[in-house]
Write a structure and sequence with these properties.
CATH class of one domain: Alpha Beta
Order of helices and strands: HHHEHEHEEHEHHEE
Structural class: alpha/beta
CATH architecture of one domain: 3-Layer(aba) Sandwich
Number of strands: 7
CATH topology of one domain: Rossmann fold
Strand order of the largest sheet: 3-2-1-4-5-7-6
Number of helices: 8
Largest sheet: 7 strands, mixed
Radius of gyration: 17 Å
Shape: globular
Length: about 230
């Protein structure tokens, strides 16, 4: 037990998550804390077993995965339809749904075992604003019109824009979690953005807790009616 009275999450190699039990987490997540904490516990207990995270990831779930996912939330609308493409373990979609309870969040994931996991998470956390869709993004062109589409670790920005723009309404947002090369990726995607009529491309440093590396978030706005892939 640590000073908070809680045992830290422990990975197979015996390492523990340095943020487990940190009181700043509950403050940071606010009203979403019960759902996020339960999601974290499910990842600790089942994530590696179900092939969602690697054996060393348990020791860095808070910083590398949950706080990283939360960094995208300030760039998402408070309400409307938010689509998480390639949701995988539910990152960032589950965290976004917990922190944006007035939004309708659609988790898009093509793999059956992962959609089964996502359904389990939705049931366990009690999130009522989430729909799980087993599909590839390109299969939903015309079936979804989102106010924002988000993604994490899906593809380079040029490809990601081609996948996500058809799902976004005119004036809606593409919001991508990226690493430190985000600016280079955005520059490389300039021609694709022009073709898709994406405007206002920007890279934002999104801090979470003091002392942690910031997350990079890329945003772009879909222009008028001609944003389909050609």
């Amino acid at each position: 037990m640590d000073e908070t009275g809680r045992a830290p999450a422990t990975a197979d190699d015996g390492s523990s998550d340095p943020l487990e039990g940190d009181p700043r987490l509950q403050v940071f997540f606010g009203e979403a804390w019960p759902q996020v904490e339960r999601f974290h516990r499910m990842l600790v207990e089942q994530g590696e077993l179900r092939g969602l995270i690697g054996p060393r990831e348990v020791a860095r779930l808070w910083e590398r995965h949950l706080l990283n996912s939360a960094a995208v939330v300030p760039f998402l609308p408070d309400a409307g339809v938010i689509v998480d493409v390639g949701s995988g373990a539910g990152l960032p979609g589950i965290v976004a749904a917990a922190m944006r309870p007035a939004a309708d969040v659609v988790l898009v994931e093509p793999m059956e075992r992962r959609t089964a996991w996502l359904e389990d998470v939705v049931a366990e956390t009690g999130l009522t604003n989430v729909t799980v869709r087993r599909a590839r993004a390109q299969e939903l062109d015309g079936a979804i019109e989102a106010d924002a589409v988000t993604a994490r670790a899906v593809a380079a920005l040029d490809k990601l824009f081609r996948l996500t723009v058809p799902l976004v309404r005119p004036g809606g947002l593409v919001v991508a979690l990226k690493g430190s090369r985000a600016r280079d990726e955005l520059a490389s995607a300039a021609a694709v953005m022009r073709r898709l009529r994406l405007t206002d491309g920007a890279v934002h440093e999104a801090p979470t807790l003091a002392g942690l590396e910031p997350t990079y978030v890329v945003t772009a706005v879909r222009g008028g009616s001609g944003g389909g892939v050609r």
